Amino acid sequence: MRRLLPTALAAALATGLLAAPTPAGAADLRIANGGFDQGLTGWSGSHSPGGFTAVTWDGRTAARVDDTSASNAYGRESQPGLPATAGVRYTAYAQVWTESGAADLYLRFRDSSGQLLGGVTGGSVSGRQWNTATASGTAPAGTASVSALIYSGVGNVGTAYWDEVVISKDDTDLGVQLESSVPNATTFSGGKAYAVYTGTADSNPQLAVIDVATEKVTSKLTFPDTTETPTVGGWAATTATDGSVYLGTYPNSKLYRHVPGTSTLTDLGRAEGGYSFIWDLEAGANGKVYGGTYNNGRYFKYDNGTFTTIGATPIVPGAEYVRSIAHDPAANATYLGTGTNASLVRYDNVTGRTDSLLPAEYAHNSMVGGLTWTGGRLFAWLDRTLLVLQVVKNTDGSYRSVVDATITDTDLHHSPAADGKVWFVKDGLLQSYDIATKTVQATAVRPDLDVTGYSWENGTLAGLGAGPDGTRIFKYSPATGASSTRLVTGTPVLPAAINALGTGPDGKIYTGGYLTGGTGAYDPLHGDADENHPDAKTLTGLNQTDSLLAHDGKLYIGVYPSARLYSYQPGGEWPPKLQYTGGATGDKAADCRAGEGPPPQDRPYALAGAPDGTVYMGTVPKYGKRSGALNIWKEGTPGRSICVVPDQAVVALAYAGGKVFGGTSTRGALGVNPVFAPGASAQVFSYDPANGAVTRYPLPSATAVTALTEVDGKVWGLAGGTLLTFDPASPSAMKTQRLFPDPDYAAKSTMAWRDGVLLTVAKDPDHVYGTQGDRIFKIDKATKAVTVLLTKSGVEDLTADRFGDLYYKIGERLYRLTVTP
C-alpha cells in the first residue's frame, strides 16, 4: 500500500517550512562476532602482531589484550566492514574491563576498495569493571563501509577485556516490531468462514477464506484502497441472502463485497462519507445489507449499488455510535444498539417508527455492544451482561421489551439458535440458553479463544476467533458433547501498529500493539537486518497496551480495555500476571460528582512507581464519561481508584519528593460531547500517600498535561508546547516556558491523552529529552534552551536504552535516534 504525505505536510516540505531529516537507514548493523562467541573470528589484526587472545572473563566470552610494551600498539578491527553511507553519523559501543592501563575504541571508515579514509575515537576508558566505551563520527566522502577497532595505543601498558562491540547509525529504522494473525470480524457462508485481518496505515488488511471442515485457509484477498481513503481494518462482516459476503471497514467507512468462489474484493464506496467506522452489518431481505456508523450514529442501507441513510441522523438523539445491529426479516424491523449513552431501539423499516426497548436499569451503560435476533428473541450484550428480551407489541402499535433472562459475565458473541438453544461463553465455559424454559446450562468445555463469529455446520457449532497462538476454530457437538479447538493454518500474518513503547528492567525495548494487542521485545543493537518482520516472535495474550513501566525489577503493563495492570518478571511466565482492573471498580452511573467516586476506568496512559513498591496508574474512564482516576496498587492489596480532578482524565504521572504528581486532560472518554470539558483547563495535582490528600494546581488555558517526570529532584512537565518546572515541595511556584506552538488538539483530540514524553539519559546529564508534536528535542537543564533533533510526521512516544539512545515510533515501525552529548 502506498501512502502519500498529508497535503499540509507535503506543502510545508516543498516550501522549506520543515526541515526534512536524513532518511533513516534500515535495520541494525550487526558485527558478525561482536561478542567474541567465536573467538577472534572476523577480527583482523592491525598494528603490532599478537597481543590479543580469546578468553572467558567474568562469566562471558571476551577478547583479551595484553600490552606489555610502551613502544607497541595493538589492535583488532571488525572485518569485513559493514555497509555505510557518506554523511551519516555512526556510533560504536563496546563493553570493556581494564585490569590495568587504558583501552580505546575507534570507528574506521573505508572506501569500496578497502582504503582507510579516517577514524575517530571517544577517548580512553579505564576501570576494573565493565564500562561502556563509545566512538562517534560522520562518514567522510567516499565511505562504503564502517568498522570498529579495539585498541591499545603506543605508550599504554596494561590488560583489557573487550565484549559486545556494536555499531549504530544516527537514525535507524528498526522496522516492524509486532505481527498479528487474529481476526477482527467473521461471517460464514457455504462451509467457509470469512475473516477480516487488520492491517496498519502502511499494510492493507486481508480477508481470509477458511474451510471450516479442514481448518485451513483456502485463499487470502487484500483489501483495495486509495491514498485518499486508506483502509486499515474492519470490525463488521455479514452474509447477504444471495450468499455474498459484505465487510465494513475503518477509518474510511467503506463497504466491500466478496462473491464466494471468486478471487476479488469489490470496493463499493463509502457508506457515509466523512465518517470513520462501519461498526456492524446485518443482512436484510432480497440481498439488502444494513449497517451502522461512528461518529454520527447513522443507520444506513445498501441495496443494489445504492447507499441510503435511514431515519434521523443520528438515529437516536445524541448517539455517536450505531455499535450493533440485528434484523427481523419477518417484520422488516431492525434493532439498533447505540452509544455512548446506551440505547436500544426497534426501527420499523416500513413505517419509520422508532421504539425504545432498553430496560431503564441499563441506561447508565455506555453502549449496547452486541445484538442478535434469533429464535424469536432479541439478545442484547452490555458490558458482559447478556439480556434475553421478548419484543412485545402494545395495543397502540408501539413496542416494548420484556426481560426473559439476565446472564452475567458473558463474552460478546453468541450463536444463532438451533434446537431452541443459543450458545455462548460464560465464565470461560461454553453454555447454552434454552429459549422455551429460560434456563442456562453449563458444559465443562473451555473454548479458550475470543470468538468473533459462530455458525452451525451439519449440526456442529463452529466458532472462529483469536487464540493465544493465532486464529483457532472451536467445534462442539451438542448431540455427543465432543469438542475441539484447533489452530487454523495459513492465516494472514500482518504487521500491527505500535501503540506504546518502554524499556524493561532487562534492557529490552518493549512494544505494545494497537487494537489487536500483542507485545514485542527488541534487544537494543542486536536486531537483524530485516525491518519488515519482528526480530522475535510476538508475545500474545494481552490486549492493546497503553503504557509500560520498569519498576523494582518488573515490567508493569497498562492494558486497554478496563484499565488492566499487569506485572511481568523478565524471563518468567507469559502472559503476565493481572494485578488490578480499573474497569471493575466504581459505579457505572458515577462521574466524580459530589459524593461520588470515579466511574469504571478504561485507558491506562500513565504509570509511576514509588520506592515502597506501590504502582500508580493514571486513567481515562469508560466510554461516555469524563472523570479519570488515580489507581493505586501494591503487592498484597486489592488496589483502588480515587477521584482527583472531576471531569478530567489522568494522563501523566511522576513520583517526586514523597508524593505522586499527576497531569490531566480536559479531553473526556470517547463518546462525550463536547469532546473537551467546557470552560475547563488542565491541572497538575499532587497525591500524598501518607494521608491521601489531593491538592490541585490549575493551569491557565491548558488543554492537557501529557508529560511529567522527575529531573534532579524537580518535576518537569509538558502542557501542549509549554514546559512546566517546579519543586515538589512548592508546586504553586511552578514556572512555565513556551517551547513550541500548542498542537491542534481539536483536529486530533486523542493526542490530548498522549502527546508528550520527557526523560533523561545517563550519558548526557546536562539535558532533558522529549517528544511532542512530531518532533524530538532536548532541553538544556541550566538555560532551558531547546534544540530540535528530529522532525518527522507521525513521531510519537519516547524511551531510551542502556546505551542512552532514544527510541520512537511511527505507525507500525520502531526507530532509534543516537544521542551524542
From TrEMBL:
What InterPro entries has UniProt attached to this entry?
Galactose-bd-like_sf, WD40/YVTN_repeat-like_dom_sf
* Annotated spans, Disordered: 579-605
Highest taxon in the source lineage = Bacteria
Q: Which SUPFAM superfamilies match?
A: Calcium-dependent phosphotriesterase, Galactose-binding domain-like, NHL repeat
- Signal sequence segment: 1-26
The alphabetized UniProt keywords are:
Signal
**Record-given protein name:** CBM-cenC domain-containing protein
Naturally occurring in which organism (per UniProt): Amycolatopsis plumensis
